[in-house]
Amino acid sequence: MNRLHVLVLLAAMACTGLVMGTAKAEAADSGKELRAAVNATAPPFAFMENGKLVGFEVDLHAEVAKRMGKQLVMTNIPFAGLAPGLQAKKWDAAGNTWINKERLVMMDFSDPWVDAQLAFVTRKNDAITSPEQLKGKTVGAEAGTAEQRWLDANQEKYGPYTIRTYDRSIDILMDLMNKRLDAYLREQTRALYQIKNYPMLGVAFPVGDVFVQGVAFRKGDPLRDEYNTILNGMKRDGTLAALYEKWLGAKPGPDSSTVHVYTTPWQPK
Question: Which domains does the chain have, with CATH numbers?
Answer without folding.
Answer: 33-115+212-248 (3.40.190.10), 116-210 (3.40.190.10)
